[in-house]
Design a protein that fits this description.
This protein is mostly beta strands and 475 residues long. The chain has one helix at 2-14; strands spanning 36-47, 56-60, 66-70, 74-80, 86-95, 100-111, 117-126, 129-141, 144-154, 159-170, 176-183, 192-201, 207-215, 221-231, 237-246, 254-263, 269-278, 281-292, 298-307, 310-326, 350-359, 369-384, 396-400, 407-413, 419-425, 430-436, 442-448, 455-463, 466-474.
Length: 475
């Protein structure tokens, strides 16, 4: 059981392995560039309740990229290029017979000139030989991923065989309205629609309806879900209702489950009621409640079950923080083009020190078991650098007013074609991206920064080989 928990947690942690820093240009003059460093607290290890003698260990390069993540059973070694793009991930498994980590899976990533991932290939080590296994190719239109193609390697044919294809269709606000997945038979031929997802959004770009349908190779509906979303005036989700269809049980769409969410005055989730549908009515299944400290950190989550005509607490999740460090002082790995990210500090304004899982299966209020994970950090000097070399080409770029706390104007003279404008914070997270076309040879764009936190940002403009960066202060 301990191995199982450690294995699951390891793959959750694998989501945080990604690029962190990019490039900062400090001076305003042409063809000038500089690098700077930040002093940040980095997560070095987590001592887990499931395996207290073997913590998960993290190591970083000088730019804050996570290059090693290791626990008692697994190890991942990552490599990056000079722009902090993830090039490869090598996954190892501990071998008790040989008493060391054996390479098991290798994934190699390829990018285009716009830093978008266009291919990744996963290989497996068999008898000390790397064997190609799965290949993913990605296509884009206007910087939006429009197609994802999956192939598997057939050793007998010594060739890649098509497995599936996913097409993405967007609305005018760049939100996915259709996602269609096509499958192929074993020889990569005879394409058929395997599943389809349709999304509907309101005027605030909140998803209000999602229909998922899965089909067999004769185009017959096999399984499906309909999900309805309801929001309050602050665009916060307050209800989610789902219906299901399964050809194995019924030929009708039937209600399945429903959640209702309430919030406090700070728009933080206060409670969640989960209902299951049965006997032609909604039945309350469990209640979750959430508590926060004065800094809006979630410090307690409790789950209540109905037992012997009383609602009793069956599980607690407790978070303890070190308030000497704020979230701005913590290294926050961000997602690469290839992986989703689970960042421990995303919902915390201070340093997480303890994560306590408490369970009472007997619901007697006495027999609690407490399992505690502890987080350890150290201060690191992180080199900040943006992804591309800065070339001025004598073009005039102005950012004004600067400093500002409301709106800034970006003005560029002497350029043609579409301009990509990206705004990064000092930890190289992309806060905003805009694509604009100049009128004549002049571009002028207003950017609302009223929702930005106070601090230093970097505005990067790019058009082909041309690239410039300017510093922006939000006060």
């Amino acid at each position: 059981m301990k191995k199982y928990y450690s294995f699951i947690l390891f793959f959750i942690l694998f989501g945080i392995q990604n690029t962190f820093s990019q490039t900062i240009v400090g001076k305003e003059g042409p063809k000038s560039s500089s690098k700077s460093t930040l002093q940040l607290m980095a997560l070095d290890s987590i001592k887990h309740f499931s395996n207290p003698d073997e913590p998960t260990v993290f190591e970083y390069d000088e730019r804050g990229n996570l290059i090693l993540m290791k626990d008692v059973f697994h190890k991942i070694v990552n490599t990056y290029n000079q722009d902090s793009l993830l090039l490869s991930s090598l996954f190892h498994i501990w071998n008790y017979d040989s008493n060391y980590f054996l390479p098991h899976e290798l994934t190699v990533y390829t990018y285009d000139n716009n830093r978008r991932i266009v291919q990744d290939i996963m290989s497996i080590m068999i008898d000390n030989v790397w064997i190609d296994n799965v290949k993913m190719n990605y296509e884009y239109t206007n910087d939006l991923k429009t197609r994802q193609i999956t192939s598997f390697f057939n050793e007998d044919l010594n060739d890649w065989i098509l497995s599936s294809k996913t097409d993405f269709i967007y609305n005018a606000d760049n939100l996915v309205i259709n996602e269609n997945i096509y499958y192929y038979n074993s020889d990569g031929l005879n394409e058929y629609l395997g599943s389809q997802t349709t999304n509907i959004y309101d005027q605030n770009n909140n998803k209000t309806y999602s229909l998922y349908e899965s089909y067999n190779d004769t185009a017959a509906l096999v399984y499906g879900t309909k999900t309805y979303f309801t929001y309050n005036s602050d665009n916060l989700l307050i209800e989610k209702l789902q219906e299901i269809y399964s050809s194995y049980y019924s030929t009708n769409w039937t209600p399945s489950n429903k959640i209702e969410i309430s919030y406090n005055t700070n728009n933080l989730k206060l409670s969640q009621h989960t209902y299951m549908y049965g006997n032609d009515e909604w039945n309350l299944h469990n209640i979750d409640s959430f508590s926060y400290d004065s800094y809006t950190n979630q410090v307690l989550a409790e789950t209540y079950l109905f037992y012997n005509e009383v609602w009793l607490c069956s599980q607690k999740v407790i978070h303890a923080f070190d308030y000497d460090y704020t979230s701005d002082q913590l290294l926050k790995p961000k997602s690469s083009s290839a992986n989703n990210t689970l960042i421990y500090f995303e919902n915390y304004s201070h340093m997480l020190k303890y994560d306590i899982q408490a369970t009472n299966y007997s619901l007697d209020g006495v027999s609690w078991s407490f399992d505690t994970s502890e987080y350890f950090y150290s201060l690191r000097s992180i080199l900040i650098s943006l992804p591309a070399n800065v070339v001025d080409n004598g073009m005039s770029l102005m950012v004004y007013p600067n400093p500002t706390n409301e709106k800034t104007i970006i003005s560029l003279i002497g350029v043609e074609g579409e301009i990509e404008i990206s705004i990064f914070d000092v930890q190289s997270r992309e806060i905003k991206r805009i694509v604009e076309k100049p009128i004549g040879n002049k571009l002028e764009v207003g950017v609302d920064v009223s929702s930005f936190k106070k601090g230093t940002y970097f505005i990067k403009l790019r058009n082909g080989k041309y690239s410039q960066t300017r510093k922006l202060i939000v006060n």
